[in-house]
Design goal:
mainly alpha
């Protein structure tokens, strides 16, 4: 008995078409962004990167800057707490006055 040769799927199948559409969309977006018309790397940015790395190794610890950092941290924490409270209200993740609890019910 002679083995049957394996049949090859057609080259132009739905997966190939969608792959080509995806690659075309990426290429079009890169073209519209002007990626081929300008330098991808800005050599003038290396000095800024060096300043950033130096500042990260030697952080500023003056009292004024630390006070500013503390205030910004507390503001961020306040926004996080308010956002969490709002989500809990939407999902009713709190106890009602009658003692019942509504877990996961959407308003």
């Amino acid at each position: 008995m002679k083995p049957q040769p394996l049949s090859r799927p057609p080259i132009l199948n739905p997966q190939t078409v969608w792959g080509l559409v995806f690659i075309g969309a990426i290429a079009l977006s890169l073209y519209q962004a002007g990626i081929w018309g300008q330098d991808v790397l800005n050599p003038g940015g290396f000095s800024l990167l060096g300043r950033f790395l130096q500042a990260s190794l030697q952080p500023e610890l003056s009292p004024e800057f630390l006070q500013l950092t503390l205030e910004a941290t507390l503001t961020t924490l306040a926004y996080a707490v308010c956002g969490t409270a709002e989500e809990c209200q939407h999902y009713r993740l709190f106890d009602y006055a009658d003692g019942s609890r509504g877990l996961g019910e959407w308003n």
